[in-house]
Amino acid sequence: MSKRITGMRRTLLGLTAAVAAGAVLTAGPAVAAGPATEPDTGRAAGSHAPTQAALDGLVAAGMPGVAAGTRTPQGTWFGTSGYADTEAGRKRTAADHFRAGSITKTFVATVVLQLEAEGKLSLDDSVERRLPGVLKGNGYDGSNITIRQLLNHTSGVFDMVSTPEWNATMNGPAFFEHRYDIKTPQQIVDMALKYPADFAPGKGWKYSNTNFVLAGMIIEKVTGKPYAREVERRIVKPLGLRETTFPGTDPKLPAPHPVGYSKLYAANPGPQIFDATEYRPSWSGATGEIVSTSGDLNRFFAALMQGKLLPRQQMDAMFTTVATGEQYRYGLGLMSRSLSCGVTVWGHDGVVWGSLSGAAATRDGKHALTFNINGDWLAESPPFENMFEGEFCGTKVGAPARG
């Protein structure tokens, strides 16, 4: 089993084995974003056979179903493989709503950067200044951690989904006992702060969902409104993302939606698969609450890349990346992948119970892809990465052996 997918199971809301590895930043300057007009559109739109082959490869690898939508100047395309409901034999559709997990982080980072552009905060503000007393004790000092370090995961703050408390209540059979529980952001942060920091602020990189719970708390402190309402006001409504919601304590998904098949992130998962479609996402909040569709997410990432949501100064900050030790670099709530054909795509991945998603766009915003698997396990990581290679490079990879 790949290190990366083991990391998926352990962290739930992030897609990286570095959550467990705690990779140290490599030497060298951060990569800054180029101008929005740079010619990085990926392959010319045409046959989607490589993308369809990647979809089929995911099902061949043992996933129940997968769907993908693309957006280019030539129009949109939708492809599917497997089933939304394996028992009923129902296929995935372009209208499917799904839990997009950590793709939420890009929306949250965008709002924080908008607030900076409005002069309401600075990325270099300390967490202590914005959330007095929240990051204190057990070796933590919020006055030494900046908002920027939260957004690019260089804060060292322990990941709440790596705690024994999280594992004991939300993984394995305990999921069914606790999936309707409600947690406040402060309760989630307190769970993480029982454990020492992974490293001194700015001295390493490690994906921590706690960082974005704190970012959501900062948005509420600065604006006086819950982070989700600010995302809706500033991004969802202006862009017309009519199928994008923040369910809060509502455990149900809007129709239509696939069944969310899960192995519940047990330490040694067996062959049994469970229906984990319903749960209250207050457990994840600003780090992974969002529900959306492939069409809405493609529209969001295209608009973000094209500078429709942020001024140039904040765009430059978001696209300044740090090394992670993984197959991507990380900016401010944004992942950067350099593909085999020389194209770089920007977006985010997300995994929650019963749902695994990926979204990315070229830097000019002209070519976007979002895909969702209605399952949360994967035998090997290459089939997942093949989605990006297939769509943006036209690389057709044969279906792997079933894992």
UniProtKB/TrEMBL annotation:
Keywords: Hydrolase, Signal
Annotated signal peptide: 1-32
Coiled-coil ranges (or none): none
GO molecular function: hydrolase activity
Pfam families hit by this protein: Beta-lactamase
Domain annotation Beta-lactamase-related: ranges: 54-375
Gene3D superfamilies per UniProt: DD-peptidase/beta-lactamase superfamily
InterPro entries in the cross-refs: AmpC-like (IPR050491), Beta-lactam-related (IPR001466), Beta-lactam/transpept-like (IPR012338), TAT_signal (IPR006311)
Protein name as catalogued: Serine hydrolase domain-containing protein
Organism this protein belongs to: Streptomyces stramineus
